[in-house]
Amino acid sequence: DEAVVQICRKFFRRLASSFDHPKVTLHVDDGAAWVDLAAKRFRNSPTGFADTESMASGSAPGAADDPTAARQFDVIIVDSTDFGAAEPLFTQNFHRNLRQLLKSRGVLVINLTSLAWQLGLVRQSVRRQRQIFKYVRVFQIYQPTYTSGHYCFMLCSNDVDALDMEAVDWAASQRKNLAMSYYSRAVHEAAFALPEFAW
Predict the structure, then answer these.
(1) d(Cα 41, Cα 97) in Å, to the nearest integer?
(2) Distance, CA of 63 to CA of 144 (rounded, Å)
(3) In whole angstroms, how far apart are CA 107 and each of 20, 76, 157?
(4) What distance in Å separates the CA atoms of residue 50 and residue 181, rounded to the nearest whole number?
(5) What's the whole-number mean pLDDT along residues 123-129?
(6) Of all residues in the chain, what percent are helix, strand and coil, respectively (each to 5)?
(7) What does pLDDT average to over the chain?
(8) Global pTM?
(9) Per-residue b/e over 85-111, b at no fewer than 16 CB within 10 Å?
(10) Angstrom distance (rounded) from CA 173 to CA 180
(11) Interval 46-61: pLDDT, tens
């Protein structure tokens, strides 16, 4: 939603500065339609992806693309609307398409809802993803600006089990010397320790 981008630029300038980072290409588009087109191109190309720029612009498959420019994604993050507000983003078809767009050892991260207040919706999402991905793990954070403050997300992959803490290259993370105010290895590990009522 382009209005969200503009509001962020006006009221959340520090956060919105990331839109202009040289590694960021910002596309405002229908996410479900973009993913559907990307997955169709992947299925129809013997080498995988065609040019992602033309995919983002919504041009038809096969239009002046370089089929050798194969590309999938290491990480896909879906930060979608609330449940039911954008229905195509909650369908099996959308998530199966996302699975096709992941590289080997790729991961999909999805925002969910309040673990404490809407456990039924969380379980419904987990059941859907388990029909698509081998590993489906819920993790929780403290996020006071959202429902109840006890919010959760889901990490899905066919190759990476988020409960395998050795799957994370912690040494590489330390070498980057990132200045974090919240995240740490201890916080990462604790996030997957769900309360008893969630099982």
Answers:
(1) 11
(2) 46
(3) 25, 7, 5
(4) 39
(5) 93
(6) 40, 20, 40
(7) 84
(8) 0.81
(9) eeeebbeeebbebbbebbeeebbbbbb
(10) 11
(11) 655 544 444 444 443 4
- For residue 53 the two structure tokens come to 């720029």
Amino acid in the structure at residue 57: S
Q: Which of 89-93, 130-134, 163-167 has the highest mean pLDDT?
A: 130-134
Q: Which amino acid is at 42?
A: F
**If 0-12 CB within 10 Å is exposed, 13-18 middle and 19+ buried, where does residue 172 land?**
exposed
The CA distance from 162 to 159, in Å, is 10
Determine contact, residues 141/151, Cβ cutoff 8 Å: yes
> How many residues are given for the chain?
199
Max avg pLDDT among 25-34, 127-136, 139-148, 168-177: 127-136
- Catalytic residue positions, numbered: 79
Task: With H, G, I as helix, E, B as strand and everything else as coil, classify residue 52.
Answer: helix
The average pLDDT across 125-139 equals: 95
